Amino acid sequence: MITHPGGIARLLYYPRAKPFQPKTSKEPEIGLGAHSDYECFTLLLSSPAPGLEILKPSGHWHQATPVPNSFIVNVADFLMR
């Protein structure tokens, strides 16, 4: 029934970023590259800054529009079996 005994819960805190400003130069961006979350699910507090993208089955990226005062629940690899 389960192929991974036990589980891990991690709480990560990321300090508030500066208010979003459209990028006008080639400065390095802050953030994570394309990845998948490997455990059960991920809870994210919505942020007004853009950045979260979803990879569609077509292989194209779709920007997730932030909803104020909400949480985003990402189903992770563990539940995709």
UniProtKB/TrEMBL annotation:
Matches recorded under InterPro entries: IPNS-like_FE2OG_OXY, IPNS-like_sf, Iron_ascorbate_oxido_reductase
What Gene3D superfamilies does this protein's entry cite? B-lactam Antibiotic, Isopenicillin N Synthase, Chain
Describe the location of the Isopenicillin N synthase-like Fe(2+) 2OG dioxygenase domain by residue ranges. Answer: 11-80
Ranges in coiled-coil conformation: none
Q: Which family does it belong to?
A: Belongs to the iron/ascorbate-dependent oxidoreductase family.
Protein name as it appears in the record:
Isopenicillin N synthase-like Fe(2+) 2OG dioxygenase domain-containing protein
Q: Which organism is it from?
A: Massariosphaeria phaeospora
